[in-house]
Amino acid sequence: MLDGVLIRIGGKDNTVPVWLKDMDGTIHKCEANSEMARELIKEYLSSPLRVTGQGDWLRGEDGAWTLERFKITAWESLDEKPIADIVNAARNTKGNGWNELDDPIKEHHHMRGSD
Question: Where is this region: Disordered (predicted)?
Fold first, then answer.
């Protein structure tokens, strides 16, 4: 799974190069079949996407992973709403546990291991 904005797509063969730029600025060079490419072209330079598929990764001597090849088999648009808006909307829904928390955003970060 990779997240990013579609910044390049094109090719002449059945395997179409697709480039995604993630939030850190890293460009992931992927590929898709022609049918998938026709779906993705509508998202060119649009909102962020999440693509899923099959990837080949190599682990370097320093322990860092490098993507060697990624074939996209599915995708979905990502919601660009800030996490604070999403958590506040959940907090305002009657009958959920978020209403009982003093700081739901802090709790969200804690659950994700990013505090």
Answer: 94-115
